[in-house]
Specification:
Number of domains: 2
CATH topology of the largest domain: UDP N-Acetylglucosamine Acyltransferase, domain 1
Helix content: 10-25%
Strand content: 25-35%
Length: about 220
């Protein structure tokens, strides 16, 4: 069945979601699967030019998120990375009756016991039994194992979070590595390339090998 979809976006990541949906369409057609395909109607964004349209085949920006009124013949895909923005705009649209799809690529290896919440976009290598992904989790090519990932969290490409317990509204950068069974609190940011060997409390920003809390020093110019 083909679904009419609109991508909610802020920036170039919307184009990445667009590409994933088109890859799913091509895979389903090639493999002659019975999975859903997607008729991408366009994007909605509060930014007038969140990205440069690369050719005429890219769909248009249909309007801004705040004033958009969902209808029954369309569904939505979350194309925003920033956890706070995801939560904000998802709530605005859902209060108006928007129906968000959960996107799980058909080439992902899926176990028998897996929970995936509403509005997730997951293109992954594989999962293990017991993995839990709450609503609006975004994960692109992540080693996850049996991880538990909280709502509105975003994990960038090639991160390894195997069997971790990750809170809400967390942002984990690309190529970050978490030791098994690490616990990450809510609102944490782990910068790209970091290696996390110990639990992280909520509201922390960490980076480095091993990952440590970011420290800022005020620079005073000499007169």
């Amino acid at each position: 069945m083909q679904k009419n979809v609109i991508i909610v976006c802020e920036d170039l990541f919307g184009l990445e979601i667009y590409s994933i949906l088109n890859e799913i369409n091509g895979y389903v057609e090639k493999e002659r699967l019975s999975n859903d395909t997607y008729n991408i109607m366009g994007f909605i964004s509060n930014h007038s030019h969140p990205f440069r349209l690369v050719d005429n085949s890219i769909k248009p920006i249909l309007g801004d998120i705040d004033s958009w009124q969902p209808t029954k013949n369309e569904q939505y895909v979350m194309g925003i990375k920033n956890p706070e923005s995801k939560e904000h705009f998802a709530k605005i649209l859902k209060d108006k009756g928007a129906d968000f799809l959960t996107i799980l690529t058909p080439w992902t290896l899926v176990p028998d016991h897996l929970h995936i919440g509403e509005g997730c976009v997951i293109s992954n290598y594989s999962f293990k039994d017991g993995a839990v992904f709450d609503e609006f989790v975004t994960m692109i090519n992540v080693m996850a194992g049996a991880a538990h990932v909280g709502a509105y969290t975003t994990i960038d490409a090639l991160a390894n979070i195997t069997n971790a317990d990750i809170g809400k509204k967390v942002r984990i950068g690309s190529h970050a590595f978490l030791m098994e069974h690490i616990q990450i609190g809510d609102n944490v940011q782990v910068y790209s390339g970091s290696m996390v060997f110990a639990n992280i409390k909520p509201d922390q920003k960490v980076a480095g090998i091993p990952a440590n809390k970011m420290k800022y020093r005020k620079i005073v110019e000499e007169e």
